[in-house]
Design a protein that fits this description.
Elements (H helix, E strand, L loop, with lengths): L1 E6 L2 H10 L4 E5 L2 E8 L2 E7 L4 H13 L5 E10 L9 E9 L21 E2 L2 H14 L3 E8 L7 H11 L3 E3 L2 H11 L3 E9 L5 H27 L2
Parallel strand pairs: 1-4, 1-5, 5-10, 6-8, 8-9
Antiparallel strand pairs: 2-3, 3-4, 5-9, 6-7, 6-10
Helix pairs in contact: 1-6, 2-5, 3-6
The structure holds S-adenosyl-L-homocysteine (SAH).
The site of S-adenosyl-L-homocysteine (SAH) has 18 residues, from β5, β9, β10 and α6.
Length: 230
């Protein structure tokens, strides 16, 4: 079985590559893909670069070119829910594109014909994540993640996204990965550690907490991989 692990930025996959003894690097479609054997399965790992377009390309490549049968995303996100503090983990139950807007035609935000406002993540992996959380003694929140091509550092925008979609966290890649995996029938799991509160201080907080939050998420995802490779 081939399992994909994906991030958006180098910092998000660096802690995962560090855990592997050796891997093969392949350049493909403007990105680097890292392949390794791990616990008897094949891992393929990549960071996509930021945003929906690059993450769509990478998720598609991981599935179609490298043959990934499951995909796990590890990264950081801005919090909407007051229950989420910096370093906390959130597992996406559903993902939506908060910047997709053809409401001029009477459609809801996040919707285009033949699409869906929300895409659901794989329930089985969410269940496994609960076991991992228990074993690690970590509390992990489940919730809706909203994705868009903008770094949200604005209370008003953040609140609008929270109210419109019932979202608990926001980032820039999850929903596009979800759309790809859903279309290709590849079960997917999206985990994010909170790096900021998507408010006025977000960019400051982001730079300060990116690395530590990315490590939190990566460690958790590797525990998931341990369980999935058994
Ligand atoms: N510091 C980077 C830019 C980071 S963009 C640079 O200068 O190059 C933010 C990244 O973290 C995205 O990959 C996104 O998925 C996630 N993210 C974390 N907090 C976010 C927020 N408040 N709004 C949107 N994305 C956020």
């Amino acid at each position: 079985m081939t399992l994909a692990i994906m991030g958006a930025m180098p910092e998000e996959i660096a802690p995962i590559l560090e855990k592997l003894e050796n891997y093969k690097t392949t350049n493909y479609a403007g990105n680097r893909y890292y392949e390794a054997s791990y616990n008897g399965i094949k891992l393929v790992i990549a960071y996509s670069k930021i945003g929906k377009v690059f993450s769509t390309l990478t998720a598609t490549t991981l599935c179609e070119h490298f043959g990934a049968k499951k995909l796990l995303f590890s990264g950081v996100a801005g919090a909407i829910s007051h229950k989420l503090k910096i370093g906390d983990l959130i597992v996406a139950t559903q993902l939506t594109q908060h910047d997709l807007d053809i409401t001029a035609f009477g459609h809801p935000f996040g919707y285009v014909p033949e699409g869906a406002v929300f895409v659901e993540a794989d329930k089985e992996m969410i269940e496994i994540s609960k076991e991992v959380a228990k074993e690690m003694g970590k509390s992990v929140q489940e919730g809706i993640i909203a994705t868009g091509d903008q770094f949200v550092a604005n209370e008003e925008r953040k609140n609008w996204i929270g109210e419109t979609f019932g979202a608990d966290a926001l980032e820039m890649e999850g929903a596009s990965v979800a759309v790809v995996c859903d279309a290709l029938d590849v079960p997917f799991f999206i985990l994010r550690a909170i790096s900021d509160a998507a408010d006025m201080d977000a960019s400051f907080s982001f730079d300060e907490f990116l690395e530590t939050s990315a490590v939190e998420s990566a460690e958790f995802v590797m525990r998931m991989v341990d369980k999935l490779s058994r």
